[in-house]
């Protein structure tokens, strides 16, 4: 965009929620990922429902496993 910020998957989740008028604060959220580019999705979901976000992560990278656990 003109501000120099790259659109990421977290922005996509936020846009989808806004356009569908979905409330992530209700119920449980499952985030599935396999790479660092999926981390922004977790951040957005945790920001809207910090106690009910669950993940399935498919990776052999130890550094990525640690980031997801935090």
Automatic annotation (TrEMBL):
Chain ranges of the Trehalose-6-phosphate phosphatase C-terminal domain: 3-69
Naturally occurring in which organism (per UniProt): Wuchereria bancrofti
Pfam families hit by this protein: T6PP_C
Gene3D superfamilies linked: HAD superfamily/HAD-like
Protein name: Trehalose-6-phosphate phosphatase C-terminal domain-containing protein
């Amino acid at each position: 965009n003109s501000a120099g910020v790259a659109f990421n998957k977290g922005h996509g989740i936020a846009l989808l929620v806004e356009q569908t008028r979905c409330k992530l604060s209700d119920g449980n959220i499952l985030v599935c990922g396999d790479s660092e580019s999926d981390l922004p999705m977790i951040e957005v979901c945790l920001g809207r429902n910090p106690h009910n976000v669950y993940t399935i992560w498919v990776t052999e990278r130890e550094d990525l496993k640690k980031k997801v656990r935090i």
